[in-house]
Task: structure prediction
Amino acid sequence: MQPRHRPLRLLQVPLFRLLAINLALGLGMAVVLVGGLLVLDPWGLRHLIFADHSPGVAIGLLLGSFFVTFGSTAMGTAIMALGGSDDDEPRGGTRAPARVKVRRR
Result:
C-alpha cells in the first residue's frame, strides 16, 4: 500500500502567494525592459547581440540577470512593506531641546 500524498497547496500560504505575485511582477518588468532595450537599440546593443553567431545566449544572460535583479527587488519591496502603516504620525518619543555643557577654552 502506497502512502497517500496530499498535493502541496503553496498558493494558499499568504506569504508564499505574496512572494510569487511580486516575483511575477518583477519578471514581467524584466521582460519589458529587455524588450525595450532591443526595440530602442541604445548604443547599437540590438545590432551587437544579433550580429553574433549565438544571439540566444546573450539574450538569455541579459534576461536572466534582469530576472534576478527585478524579481528580488519586487519581492524585497513587498516584504519591507509588510510592517508599514498608512498613517503619517511620527513614532517614538517627543522632541525636546537637549542641554549640553560646553567648556570654553
